Amino acid sequence: MAARKKSFEDNLRRLEEIVDLMENGNIGLEDSVKLYKEGVNISMSCAQKLKDVQQQVSTLQKTASGLFEKQPFEPMEE
Fold it and tell me: Taking the model in full, what pTM does it have?
């Protein structure tokens, strides 16, 4: 049986767990490194998922004639 692919939200929850475990300081060096690697992999997966979704999202913008036109999504600058 194939393993179920984790959702974006599941991955975020796991990242929060990893951060909590590492901030707690009650784990050894080897476990910290394993958790760090897992966190990096999850973070990269989340970033790719956001990029994929961003490419799918489009916005409707009103033209001068009052009609709505589909435009590609452009994130706001931070």
Answer: 0.69
